[in-house]
């Protein structure tokens, strides 16, 4: 990135042009060379949130356990309730966020995988790993 040196007040118009040119060059550099960094940092600030209306299937709600802590991140050895919308939504959000995808087709693929998932996969971290790895394998 370039630097701007103040030369004094006699050439303020030239200084302003140089300053504006420097700002534009710096901006262009940041935009072109840091796009992937920006995308990653934006994801960290703005996670993907899956809503019930985004899903292709309807799921029952376990209202009595609605306020209990849900999946947030690995590790999470607590059991996963695949028959509870309040468990499914944060899991789908976490997997979509991990995949860096906002594609509805990927979300529907995740749902299909969840509904076909073997019953021996029971903890939240096992479900997360299974869904993530299965989607990566399916999408190649």
Notes on the structure:
This protein is 55% helix and 0% strand. With 140 residues, it is mainly alpha-helical. It folds into 2 domains: 1-33; 46-139, no CATH class. α4 (104-116) crosses α5. Residues 1-7 and 31-43 have low confidence and may be disordered.
In short:
The protein has 140 residues and is an all-alpha fold.
- The CA-CA distance between the termini, in Å, is 38 Å
* Oligomeric state as shown: single chain
- What is the residue-averaged pLDDT? 81
Task: Bin the strand percentage.
Answer: under 5%
Counted beta strands: 0
Secondary-structure-derived class: mainly alpha
Q: Any idea what the radius of gyration is?
A: 24 Å
Poorly predicted regions are 1-7, 31-43
Helix content: 55-70%
Inertia-based shape: elongated
Helix count equals: 5
Tell me the series of helices and strands, N- to C-terminal.
HHHHH
For the largest beta-sheet, the strand count, sense and barrel status come to:
none
**Total domains, how many?**
2
């Amino acid at each position: 990135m370039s630097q701007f040196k103040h030369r004094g007040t006699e050439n303020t118009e030239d200084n302003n042009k140089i300053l504006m040119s420097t700002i534009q060059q710096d901006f262009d550099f940041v935009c072109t060379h840091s796009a992937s960094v920006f995308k990653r940092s934006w994801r960290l600030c703005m996670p993907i949130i899956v809503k019930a209306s985004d899903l292709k299937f309807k799921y029952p709600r376990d209202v009595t356990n609605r306020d209990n802590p849900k999946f947030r991140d690995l590790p999470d050895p607590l059991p996963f309730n695949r028959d509870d919308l309040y468990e499914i939504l944060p899991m789908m959000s976490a997997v979509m966020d991990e995949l860096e995808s906002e594609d509805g087709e990927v979300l529907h693929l995740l749902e299909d995988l969840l509904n076909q998932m073997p019953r021996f996969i029971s903890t939240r971290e096992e479900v997360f790993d299974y869904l993530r790895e299965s989607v990566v394998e399916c999408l190649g």
